[in-house]
Amino acid sequence: MLLNSRGLAIILSGCIAAIALGSLLLLPDIPVYAYWLVFFVSFGTGYILINVVLEFLFFRELRSIYKMFEQIRANDLSQLEPNKKFGHSSINQIHQEIYDYAHGKQSEIEELKQLAKFRRQFLADVSHELKTPIFAAQGFVHTLLDGAIDDKKNRMKFLKRAAKNLDGLDMLVQDLLTVSHMEAGDITMQKEPVDICEMIYEIFDQMEDNAEKHNITLKMNEPRYEEIKVIADPQRIYQVLLNLITNAVKYSDEGGRVEVSLNEAGSKLDIRVKDNGIGIPSEHLNRIFERFYRVDKSRSKAIGGTGLGLSIVKHIVEAHKSEIKVVSSPGQGSTFSFRLDKYKPQ
């Protein structure tokens, strides 16, 4: 700034001193020392008062605003400070509006950086997940083309393995499409009365062979033919329960136990899926619903899955105006829970 508070204070206090001397000249018989005294007193007092007033009410705020513009010009928005409200109200308002604008832009920049990071991570995860089944199926097909197709003993084995990997690839693509549609809001929940008890026992019947193979007990706190209805999209809630129960069986040790419980909570029905399996360390709990996130990558790969199941569960539950929660600790198992609106017959 070319003009600061001191320079302006000198000019204004000089004007005040000159006016005071001019007024004094109109009076007769004034000694010379009185002129000097009036000049220094008026000039000094005026300088101090004007300098203080200008500095605190205007120039300090103007310097702060100028500094904010420099930071905005240099894209250094993270160091901006809010207005301390020392200056004039109009300047304070200008300062605050500039700060609010810059702060909003900083938030947008941080959000864009975070989205770019997620996009890079998502592309890397998708590439990695797609690579495994594609390379495996490609290897089996090329092996057959290189002459193994004439070997009757291995021909069907290679074809079955290639088909299995292609089925896994198809499942991954379908899950990716589901997640993308849900995040874009393209999927609308078709809610209707659903017998949740019947649905859970249907999933138990579907999982029975796999559970028996590992000596895992499937149990529910309500009898098979009890009718308990909720308002939900039957297809999507079936997908949620199937995913949670399947995961509970997958991550349970030999001879484990998977329990599903239904408990009334006012106008809601609390649904819990509990296992006594390997559990989830606390540092992973806030990330298990991310796409492709795996707590134990080696074990997850061994038992299969696309890595999108819990992400789909989260989106479906949130689309039902609810929240999926998890309580877990290593070696103690995990409990996933969410709530749905109970059906009230008219």
UniProtKB/TrEMBL annotation:
One MF annotation (Gene Ontology) recorded for this entry: ATP binding
EC class (word): transferase
Keywords: ATP-binding, Kinase, Membrane, Nucleotide-binding, Phosphoprotein, Transferase, Transmembrane, Transmembrane helix, Two-component regulatory system
Keyword Cell membrane listed: no
EC number: 2.7.13.3
PROSITE patterns noted in UniProt: HIS_KIN
Residue intervals passing through the bilayer: 7-27, 33-59
Domain Histidine kinase: 125-344
Catalytic activity entry: ATP + protein L-histidine = ADP + protein N-phospho-L-histidine
Any matching Pfam family: HATPase_c
SUPFAM superfamilies: ATPase domain of HSP90 chaperone/DNA topoisomerase II/histidine kinase (SSF55874), Homodimeric domain of signal transducing histidine kinase (SSF47384)
CDD domains in the cross-refs: HATPase, HisKA
PANTHER family: PHOSPHATE REGULON SENSOR PROTEIN PHOR
Protein name: histidine kinase
Species of origin: Reichenbachiella ulvae
